[in-house]
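@channel anyone free to eyeball this complex?
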Amino acid sequence: MQDKSIRIEKLVPKNPQGLVVVITGDGKGKTTSAMGMVLRACGHGLRVCIIQFMKGDLYSGEWDGVKRLGEQVELHVTGKGFCGIRGNPYPWAEHRANAQSAISLAAEKLASEAYDLVILDEINNALKLKLVDLEQVLALLDQRPIRIHLVLTGRSAHPEVIKRADTVSEVREIKHAYQKKIEPQPGIDY
Amino acid sequence: MQDKSIRIEKLVPKNPQGLVVVITGDGKGKTTSAMGMVLRACGHGLRVCIIQFMKGDLYSGEWDGVKRLGEQVELHVTGKGFCGIRGNPYPWAEHRANAQSAISLAAEKLASEAYDLVILDEINNALKLKLVDLEQVLALLDQRPIRIHLVLTGRSAHPEVIKRADTVSEVREIKHAYQKKIEPQPGIDY
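replying in thread with the prediction:
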């Protein structure tokens, strides 16, 4: 359904260029926002690679959701869950090993130039938890071919990452259902 | 790609219930976040209805992106663009008429119970611009069947809407590419 009386304009940038986007903060809507960019990018025919750094031990709807988008979108779940919370049983060294593989994968994917949008989901947390090093993240930013959009999500984004980004949003929690003891609900919270 | 050594847990809430989620603030990532919930909800097999209150005169990637998700997702673009900005040529009364139709559509969709997730995109702006009335928005919240998730996006969310919501995030703009005179880029900004 669309109002047929409206002239629809389609923007085409004179200078197409890849953006570095950081979505940080303590509120709900960081990974979710990145997934929205995936959906939007698909509409434009862009090719997308998602690497999830922390997630892995808890099913999240986007794992199946992206399958609907076809071969244009690739999702790599490389983590072992959130290090140190939710009774996560894996030692730091294992989390670090997984995150290190994810960094190599990210470098490889960026270098392949097979994508228009690369999402490094929760990489900010991985950096905060020292699962990856600042130098490694900055190297990814420096090595990124300029035409590729790179999105970095997760709370506690490092100031050096923010400094190098084009667009940065902080998602603040005003309130959250868990404060009313409401359980996480599928489709909204995971 | 997924670490095969990990046991994946799938949460199932003991008390499934619809949430009212508000995504507000001046930063990038409100509609985008709602679109991420659409993708995630699809992964869980939920049925989704999106009503875009303000957008309509400017192509946005999610219009085609959601088509990939199949019949499970319905998108209604009811607006005439952002009232009063970007050289938008339509008078307020026309915007109001469109927004009023969108409110009726939202009421109808919520009452139909044919969806698990209903997204009222940019309804906060529509309220701020008096294209819809507070009483109308509160009536939607009150009439919502409790099992349906309702997501309201847009800057300047009304305090009464925030009061009734379960989860509220404020997306703050830390910086944005337009400040460096970078044009909006497809897949990221629209």
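from a first look: The mean pLDDT of chain A is 94.
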